[in-house]
Amino acid sequence: MNKNFILLDHPLIKRDMTILRDKNTSTEFFRSAVKRISNILAVEIAKSFDLKELNIETPLEKTKGYKINQEIVLIPILRAGLGMVSGFIEVIPEAKVGHIGLQRDENTLRPVEYYYKTPKDISNAFVILLDPMLATGGSASEAVNYLKKKGAKQIVFSCLVAAPEGLKKFIENHPDIKIYGAALDRQLNEKGYILPGLGDAGDRTFGTF
Ligand code: PRP
Ligand code: URA
User: Which residue of 16, 25, 200, 209 has the lowest C-beta tally within 10 Å?
Assistant: First the structure.
């Protein structure tokens, strides 16, 4: 396994990944499982946040406390990345949220851009890119290209399911970016879907079957 890929190993993730993979899971249960896994990913990623010490007073005496010493910016890749936002926000309520709109062309599997909106200055921010699926790696790689062009220097990518092919390509394209994931699956099929996977994450999140 590449050192850039941090695969979370947790009983609650295993339980929730099973809910996500099951084709009989309803949209409602799918969303809530994505949210719970996102909570855990957020807690893990937050271990890397820069903290500043500060002085506070409890009702009893003076003591030291901490605050997060940098802007945190979540960037979901539309659409499916949106499903991960609420789980991250719950744990990191001070985070700002930008959006990147990419849609895979079904024939070429190349990402097609349709929307970008991020906070103006992300050069000193800790940027967390969110997309449940790292399949061929095209969408995540393209999104990081954009964020780097915007000046972002500290970026991590968080997904739910990664395919070996996409992981390899992403790490080749961006060897400086850490990837946090909840599962590493076997392979892609001929249509670029992850096996065993969970199907189309956008459709399952939004009920657009
Ligand atoms: C899915 C998924 C990723 C992308 C992954 O989005 O959410 O963004 O495919 O595939 P890749 O690694 O091969 O680029 P999709 O393009 O289907 O759009 P959607 O989220 O709007 O359904
Ligand atoms: N996008 C998805 O939503 N699912 C896959 O398996 C691959 C790409």
Answer: 209
